[in-house]
Amino acid sequence: MENMEIWKKVNAPPDWAKRPIQFGALKGKTDINPQWRMQAMTEAFGPVGFGWTYSIDRLWLEQGHADEVCAFALVTVKVKLGSEWSEPFQGIGGSSFTSKTKNGVYTSDECYKMATTDALSVAFKAVGVGAQIYSGFNDGSKYQELFNTPEPPATIDDEQLANLEALAQEVGADLKKFAGFLKVEKLADLPKAHYPAAVKALEHKRRTS
User: Fold this and answer.
1) Residue 87: HSE in the Cβ half-sphere, 13 Å Cα cutoff
2) Which parts of 64-107 are beta strand (E)?
3) 143 backbone dihedrals φ, ψ, rounded to 5°
4) Three-state DSSP class for 17?
5) Which domains does the chain have, with CATH numbers?
6) Which of 7, 137, 152, 162 could be stapled to 147 by a disulfide with Cβ–Cβ 3.0 to 4.6 Å?
7) Which pLDDT score is estimated for 35?
8) What is the mean pLDDT of residues 123-136?
9) What is the pTM of this model?
């Protein structure tokens, strides 16, 4: 198996598994459906308990700011390749047990469940689950240009270039200055979408010369 084979299988969540975060410190970032993470692990390694497994090693509470109390979970994950189990790798996740809202203090009876889900997502990062999101592919981070650079616009073809050069020569236009007028370094760099406007400009010069 190639080193990146598993990573490539699980790094890109499908659109249905992605949701923009609307509130809080992570507003504008992308949340991943936790069920998709389980699905990705199952597709890559097999059913839980056979191809991969996890244990909840510790659940605990810690005092946060003012009346807020945070819940944390520590999990250990192992995966199986062929007949061999991996060394264990871990993740720590958290959630709110009590939090202050405009209506008073809210207590969550699902804090440990959510903390465990968060801890699993952290552990799963080690094998690449959702890596595109965490690398900034969807979140506008400094890495987005690296992963998601748009294709440059198509430039004019040889026939269109020859036509522009002939028109420019006919009306006595300086090619370098004309390219500057079109905001390109040279005419060959002109986007196809701007070709009609370039022809129109030269024909106008011919009519007014």
Assistant:
1) 2
2) 69-81, 84-85, 89-101, 104-107
3) -90, -10
4) helix
5) 5-147 (3.30.390.80), 158-208 (no CATH)
6) 137
7) 93
8) 87
9) 0.61
